Amino acid sequence: MKYTRMSLYTGRTSTMSMYRVTHSVKYFYTASSEVPNFPEFVVVGMLDGVQMVHYDSNSQRLVPKQDWMNKATETMPQYWEMQSGTLIGTQQRFKANIDIAKQRFNQSGGVHVFQWMYGCEWDDETRATEGSDQFGYDGEDFIAFDLKTLKWIAPTPQAVITKHKWDSNTALNERNKNYYTQTCIEWLKKYVDYGKSTLMRTVPPSVSLLQKTPSSPVTCHATGFYPRGVMVSWQKDGQDHHDVEHGEILQNDDGTFQKSSHLTVTPEEWKKNKYQCVVQVTGLKEDIVRVLTESEVKTNWDAPNIVLIIGVVVALLLVIVAVVAGVVIWKKKTKKGFVPASTSDTDSDNSGRGAQKI
């Protein structure tokens, strides 16, 4: 979906590729071995990029991370106790799967990770839906479910044994299809309704121009905004300037997002020309503009601003810690999302594939 508007600052018409109104519920089951100071088993549930549930083998408790999550389960007494009990059993099977995978890859000790990612997406404009069910081992794809053929895809020879075993269970594969195309979507819609006060809000960003040293790139840093649809760009004398490096959109600890764009330019150059950073966020009618001037740039060679720079670094570290603590991501990036499920009569009423041995 394209979003077009007239900039109040430049008079130009800018076309911004905005995020479609697509909702997703995603779960990540992660089992690991010999990772220092990290739980052997972690489950994280995400709704539209916001964490809603968390479980780890240290606490052995599934807990809600959002107040509205309690509303989704208020008609189901003992929900959290039952789900916690299910996950205690699941973590033992995941631990066994690491041992099986190590044998197939002819490995012994060391750090190893086995992960299940699955869930569904729903486009509330087109009503299109998608489901995903995928396993990974040590940062690489291991096996994935094809909803169209109801067969399993094994990209590595070590997963072929699992493929043959799971392909033969046609009844279970049919239940998988029913879960991803119906049950998961139904619960996704319920969750979106429960959490709409959080998910449908619009929060403007705080925008700063930062520079480490006089010869370092100038960073335009936008943080604290929601939703995640954003464009952070640079202009030179009123024209789009493309010789910049864009950072990824990262999630802050409070559920908002941040993004940076780095401009490499000499002090002499930006003092002779008008450089400005333009930030556009989904839901905000006006662009946020910061003109590159000496007074606007925050530096860490200027003592009073050291605290500000440290604050930015700490915020980034918090994001990294939150990601590492929640889920170990595939090295291979994918455009599709995934979600966790278990074997109850709730949203996670999946086949329980993740509880089976590979």
From TrEMBL:
Pfam families: C1-set, MHC_I
Keyword Nucleotide-binding: no
Biological-process GO terms, alphabetical: immune response
Transmembrane segments: 306-330
Source species, domain of life: Eukaryota
Family, per entry: Belongs to the MHC class I family.
Name under which the protein is recorded: Ig-like domain-containing protein
Species annotation: Hucho hucho
Taxonomy of the source species: Eukaryota, Metazoa, Chordata, Craniata, Vertebrata
